[in-house]
Structure formats: C-alpha cells, structure tokens
C-alpha cells in the first residue's frame, strides 16, 4: 500500500472489535480503543508478534477529552498518517427491563456511549478520513463503519433504552453518509441481527450447530469487503445473520 | 364522560401543542406543560373562558424533578383523576450545521428534550394512563402520543443532531406500544412530514396556497381520532402531510 | 352534504368490506363490488332498509371489462355523481406453501386480484375522485384507500405469493399518493397487522379475550377518520392492531 | 475449487449482467440467459477466449417452458453440477407515465419479467443451489442474488408500474431468505440506488465526474463479496450508490 494510513477501532473487546482489528491489521497499522486495557493488551501483542502493527489506548469514547487524547497518541505513534478506516463498535450496556423501572441514568449511560460516543469518535476520525480521500495513492476509499444491532431497526418491548440509541446511531450513520460521500468518505452501518459467537455467548444456543451464531471473524471480513468497495459503489448498510437465524 | 380523567400535553407552543390542547379540552380538563408561561398563559385563559378547564405548568421536560412537580401540581388541581391522554410534543431545538461544527452540547441538548424528556414524561404519565385502562367507565382507551417529524424516518445531511433523537423517540414509541398495549394503553407516533402553519413559519412557502402547509388544528383532530380508536383497533403510527407537500 | 357523491367499496365480504360499506353508507350512497352476489345482497338490503342507499354489483376486479361495467352501472344508478371515497379491499387468496411447490398460477392469481385489480379499480374511480376534488361543496377531500396486511411490510417464509402482491400494492398506493395529492385526492394505505374478527376467523384465538382480534367496524371507523382529514392533513399510511396483538 | 459447480445469470445485457458474468466466470463456468443472443454472444466468446467457460442461452425468463429449457441445456453442457450462484438481473421495461395513461399490459409486462420471472428462475435454480449447500467440498455457500433498484424501496409519482414489481421482488427475496437460509442457501437483494455507468446511460450526468455513476464491475465485485460470505454471516440486503449520488 503506497499511502501511509492507519485504521482505528473503537470498542475492542473479545468479539467483533478484536476480529475487525485483526482483519484491518493485515493492511494497516491499527489503533485499538477500549475503556480497559485488558480488552486490547493481549491482542496488541498478538498483532505485533504476527507481523502487524498495533497500539492500544485506554479510551472512554463518551468523553471528548479522552478521545482527543487517543487521537493525539495515534498521531505520536503513527505520525501524520491518513485514516483509512475507522470502525465504531462501542455500545452502551443495557439490560432489558420494564419501562417504568428504567432510570434516566440507565438511558443516558446507553446514549452516552452509543450515540455521543459515535459523534465524538467520528469527529475525531473524520479529518484523517478526509485526508485519505484526497490521497491519490490510497488503494481504497476511507471508510467509517458503525456497528448496529437488531435493535437498530426493531424496538421490542422493554428494550427502548437500547433501541433508542441504536436507532439514533443509524440516523447518524445515514446523515454522515449523505454529508461525506461527496467528499469521498464511505460511511456504512451494519445491522448485526443475531447472536455473535463470542466468549460471553458461549452458552447461548448450545444445542444448535455453529451456524446458529454469527462468526466475529466473518463480520470482520464483511467490514473489510465494505472497505474494498470503490467510490463508484458505496454500500451504506448491510445486515448480517447466521444461516440458522430465527429472525 | 363518566370517568374522571384529564389530558396532559407537553410542549405547548403557538402551534401543534396549542391546537392539541384545545381539541382535547373539548372532552377533558387539560394540563399544559411548557418551559415558559408565555407559551400557555393566554391559551389557559382562552380554554377556561370558553367552558373548558385548563391549567398551565412551567416545566422543563428534560428534568425529572420538574416533571414530577408538574404531575404533583396536576394531582392537586384535578384530584386523583385518570390520565385519558398524554401528548408529548416537545422537541429539542436544533440547527442544521456541518457535522464537524456540531458540539457535544448541541447534540445533548437536543437529546435531553426529545428523548430523555419523552422518557421522563411517559414515566410520569403512565400510572394515570394505566389507571384509565382499568376504568370500565372510560369512553376511550388511554392514549400516549409522540410527535415526530420528517427527521424521525429520514436522516438528511447535517441533520444528525435532530434526526438521531427523533429516530430514538420513534424507537421508544414502538417499544412502549409493544409493552403497554396488552395493558390497554394505546401508544402512537405521528410523523409530521411537512411545514406546519404556525406563526413562526408564516413567511415560508409564501407563494403557495394554504394547502402547502399542514394545519395545526388538523393535526390535533387526527390525534383525537387516534384517541377515539377502540382497543380492537390501535394505530401505532400515522404520517401527516399537506396536500401540496413535495415529499 | 351539499355535493352529490357516492362511495364505492371493492372486495365486500362478511368482514372489513361490509363494515366499511355500512360506515360510509351513513354519509353517501354506496356501491358494493364483489365477485359473488351472496357477498353483498344481504348487506345491500340492510343498508337500504335502514335509511341508506346501496347497490351491489357482481364484479371481477381483475378484469378491466368487468370493472368498467360496474362503474357504468354506478353511473346509471347514481347519475353523474362525484366519487367521495373509493376503498379497495380485495385480496387474492393465497395459501402458505413451500416456495418450490408454488405454481406460477398461484402467484398470478394473487397478483391479478391484489395489484392488477387495484390498478383497474383505481383507474376507474379516479375520474370521479378528481371531480370531487374540484367540487367546492364537498365536505371532505375525496379518499382512495387500500387495505393492506402484515404481509405488506413483512415477507415471511413461504408467504412470497401473498407478500409480493401486498408489497406491490403498497408501492402503488404511495406512488398514487404522490401523483394525486397535489390534485386534491387523499390516498391512504392501511396495514392491517392482526387477525380481524370475522366469521371465517371465529375459531382463531378462541382462548383469548375479544381484544386479541381487530374489530371490522373499528377498521371502518378508522377509514372514515382518514376520509375526514382535511387537505392540510393527509395521512398516507396507518397500521392497525388489536390491543393483545403479539406483533 | 474442489466442487463441480456453475453460476447462472439471468438478464445479461451490456451492463451489470455482463460484469457479474465476467466476475463469476473467474471461479465457475457460467450460463448466461438473455432474451436475445446479441446480449450475450460476444461476452460468451470473450469469457471462453480468456480462459473461462461460458454458454449463452436465449431465454424468456417470464416463461416457465423457456427457463426449463435453459436449465436443461445447462445440464447438458455442465453435467450434473451444483449451482454455486444464481443472479437474477432481469427487469421488465417500464416508462414513467401518468397513472391514468398506464395500461394493464404495461403493468403486467413489467410484472411478468420482474416478479414472475424471478419466481420461475428461482424455482429452476434452487435444486442446484440446495445441492451445493449439501456439498462439503463447496468453498462458499450457494448464493441467490436479486438485483433491485431505487424503486424497490421508493415509489415515486408515475412510477408504480416499475415500483410495484420491484417492491414485490424484494418481498420475494426476503421470503426466500427466510425459507432457504436454514437449508444453507444465501439469498440477497441489492438495491442499486443510482445511475449505472453503461452504454445506454453514456449521456446521462455528462457534466459530472465518473464518481456520479455506479460502476457495473463494482456491482459485480460486491455481488462476489456477498457470495464469499460464510454461512455464519449472511447479508440479505445491500444498497449501492456512487460517491456523488444525490440520494
């Protein structure tokens, strides 16, 4: 790859985020953002040892200051590089509960990570993405990807605290696609509509074959395929389901 | 009407909120909530003088305490009445601006009114709505209505600060409909997809006939028609456009 | 009502169609179209005996000639009246079956009634609807309503023969709304998302209270409420569910 | 590729169909179906001369007999091979025109190719696709792709004759995805939302840079990326736009 460019992933845990980091690390140095270092330290080591380049940065995506510091650190490490890809994979935790038992805090916690976090992260990544769009040596258009969920398009009972921010994130993704596509940035939203096969879901759907869950590496490959799309073919939304999804 | 019940409208200004208040005041005593008394004081007087009953309460819907106080005041005024209808018509102000110029504060202001406000208001109104659902003498099922906009379903460029909360509000409405319909509460969301004819928009579409704008009283009548629906026929979403809407 | 105008309902059976006919007969002479006279003859008698005016016409909505004859008959009976409301409630029969067992004929039967029928019926009704839009003495804007179903927005497994035409009908409704709203015709689509309480579904959801089914008269009332909307407030789509719908 | 499998493309013209054929011919022998041989004869020659294998078959996709003959011919040429991929790219011609000027024939022509054709083609291809799903040596899950358009999700004025079948096709695609995913067939629908750069559109958007149009080869690459997805990651719908799309 001729151009000097990095990829950044926010919300790196043991699932999709890690897989996306590994996949994009095959092409770019990667910066991994997560609240707790235990979410990225092993992975950073793994990538660096297998010939890639990775840094991990403790970041609270809901905090402007924290994200600014992260991007400052990225600049220190990777120099004045373009941003080839930015993946927002963070999501506020939210437990299903009766509406009348939800607190304003439940709600705002979820919002602050999923939506405010996406705003702050996107604003930090966009200057580097726009620079990459101008770079004639760039192999692929710069790509900004948001990870959504079933709740991005379906608002079930007792799930408003999760669905409201996820619907909002989807709106933000579409709005950004419309504003930044003409400037060469490819913005996409992925509706992950099923159970991802990660350590936390190990015991879910136990009696079912592996095809009942979504593979995290497979999601990562699909994100990479989005990144490979040319500027004459931008996909702004994909859905993802396992073969045995009940829908 | 046999049952003792009131209606409450949050977000009363010179447009939709006022019209809704007038329409529901034909059947119920109404409580009008708005941040500034100038938004409801004339209207309260008008309703009370024309044979209805209205109270106005200065309320910041984004504040739990303020909304709790408002409902305490309602109880003092209307006694232990059911809530027959609650209309959430508040909306955070938001100006179209380039994404990179938006501040976290722009965003959270909009969110706090449109979504957090809807959460707080709904939680305050639901006990009274549920009581009305149990009341055999109630003429119509209790109704909780949220006012949406074009931006509830369409996220245009530079509009994410408005569209994100509006998408979120729509998710909340659907989730509430699914949770509370079985308990007898009719929840509905209205996508107002056009320019409403209010003092603020007086000079918009000036060269067009009146049918280019949505009538605020007509919206109110449509909300009333939602309220009249039986529990064997709940509509959870309507869209509203003027005859000459360009879409 | 000052203006001389009739309403026409296609697809009159013992359910929604009959209820819609009764409701609109309170305001207009009504023409009832159904393939078999047994679907309307009792109802015609009932309406005429209770002070309304109704005619029934054996019609195959999928046939241009048959629909033309029906509208000729309407003209003979009602004179040169405007069409105040036209409701397309016909639907091709379709049984859920594995895709590989469906025949082209299964599919085209369903299409011919649900979509081709809607085309033919709308083309026949529109001249009268447009005339009503020009009539200054008309109380309400002329209204063209299409009855949809869950399958209008959700395409389940083995249901493509029903969902494909229903999706298509919804597209037609939207397209007509955009073309004819500026000419004063209010076009609306109703997604009936639940079991309607009609003789044929008597044994369905037997262990559930009446609120588990949609009331046909309640649908009719909602259609009437659509008709009452002014030309500064057109709703182009409503969904309808019973209180105890599982979604 | 260990398994013996072919790909089949219906609706091969000088645009998307040809590009898809070329792309899939890099991995599979391909059968190209089009009404007129002039649509595929040069392309068949080109593929065969460049090391691939292709056959062209004159086919009317709206005719069961014609499609059956085509698949019989495929079997004669490719033997008892699996079907690795089937792409339905045919579309009934339709001109924008006022609703009242459309004929039933305009409508049914469009339906017969876009929807009835999709039914017939899918039924012919599915046995081979299902066989591929059972084949342990298959590299990728068998894939059935439908080409949609803006009109698959947006029904503009005067466009119902095109939008109705396209909405219907989308319903069919979703229904098939739900029925056949559990059997291992990956079904996907592509909303091509912009002008494709093909000979016929040469003079469109002339003053705009190439990024104002969608590249046919780029669409083909995106279809290939769908085909590469594992059965733990099926995308059922993508949208595609050029960088400079106005939306």
UniProtKB/TrEMBL annotation, chains A, B, C, D:
InterPro entries documented for this protein: NAD(P)-bd_dom_sf (IPR036291), SDR_fam (IPR002347)
Record-linked Gene3D superfamilies: NAD(P)-binding Rossmann-like Domain (3.40.50.720)
The protein's name: NAD(P)-binding protein
Organism whose genome encodes this protein: Extremus antarcticus
């Amino acid at each position: 790859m001729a151009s000097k460019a990095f990829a950044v992933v926010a919300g790196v845990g043991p699932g999709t985020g890690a897989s996306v980091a590994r996949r994009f690390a095959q092409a770019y140095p990667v910066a991994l953002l997560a609240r707790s270092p235990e979410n990225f330290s092993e992975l950073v080591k793994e990538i660096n040892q297998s010939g890639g380049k990775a840094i991990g940065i403790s970041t609270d995506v809901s905090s402007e200051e924290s994200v600014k510091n992260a991007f400052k650190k990225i600049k220190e490490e990777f120099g004045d590089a373009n941003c080839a890809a930015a993946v927002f994979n963070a999501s506020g935790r939210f437990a299903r509960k009766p509406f009348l038992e939800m607190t304003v805090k439940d709600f705002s916690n979820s919002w602050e990570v999923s939506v405010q976090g996406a705003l702050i992260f996107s604003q930090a990544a966009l200057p580097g993405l726009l620079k990459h769009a101008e770079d004639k040596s760039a192999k692929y258009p710069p790509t900004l990807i948001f990870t959504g969920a079933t709740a991005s398009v379906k608002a079930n009972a007792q799930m408003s605290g999760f669905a409201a921010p996820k619907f909002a994130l989807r709106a933000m993704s579409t709005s950004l696609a419309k504003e930044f596509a003409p400037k060469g940035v490819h913005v996409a939203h992925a509706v992950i509509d099923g159970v991802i096969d990660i350590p936390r879901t190990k015991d879910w759907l136990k009696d079912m074959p592996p095809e009942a869950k979504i593979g995290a590496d497979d999601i990562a490959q699909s994100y990479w395929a989005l990144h490979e799309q040319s500027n004459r073919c931008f996909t702004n939304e994909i859905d993802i389901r396992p073969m045995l999804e009940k829908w």
